[in-house]
Design goal:
two-stranded parallel sheet, about 35% helix, about 170 residues, Rossmann fold, five-stranded parallel β-sheet
């Protein structure tokens, strides 16, 4: 049975504040935040308010490149310094897919930030508010926007990739 660790609203605010501080300290800060659906949407909205940066969203929750349509191309060709936001970099699958799609579309200045970064991930992020090692930390993090889901749905999400929590 997985260990469900609930991230409180106050913890979420602290994580977002950490990311916002890192963005403000950046010598070439992003000019556009992009929330990755589903988990990165809420943090991106908070981060947009905290930094005053504009925000767009991209839905990659279905992990289906074809569903992205022209959004990747529009973002890649925008000339903006893009910072993609997600809740957690766990396996790195989402970040790898988006990096590949953006590179193929000609994007030049793309970075990624997460609330939580797994040091064992196949992908690295540019900014992380918190770092974990999945080899040690097997907790399934439940963010405030997920906490409204039935326990069975949270358990089903966790069970999709059992090696993360076993």
């Amino acid at each position: 049975m997985p260990i469900f660790t609930h991230v409180t609203h106050d913890e979420l605010l602290a994580l977002v504040s950490h990311l916002a501080d890192a963005i403000r300290a950046d010598s070439a800060p992003p000019t556009l935040l992009v929330g990755i659906g589903r988990g990165g949407l809420v943090p991106a909205v908070y981060l947009s308010h905290a930094t005053g940066l504009p925000m767009r969203s991209i839905d990659y929750s279905a992990q289906d490149d074809a569903l992205l349509g022209d959004v990747v191309t529009v973002l890649a060709r925008s000339g903006e310094r893009l910072l993609f936001i997600d809740d957690i970099n766990d396996s790195g699958r989402t970040i790898a897919a988006l990096r590949d799609l953006l590179a193929a579309a000609g994007a030049r200045d793309v970075r990624f930030a997460t609330l939580i970064d797994n040091t064992g991930s196949a992908q690295r992020v540019d900014i992380a508010a918190r770092t974990i090692d999945r080899a040690v930390t097997k907790d399934w993090f439940v963010f405030p926007w997920e906490a409204v889901a039935p326990d069975s749905a949270i358990a089903a999400d966790a069970a999709e990739v059992p090696d993360r929590i076993a």
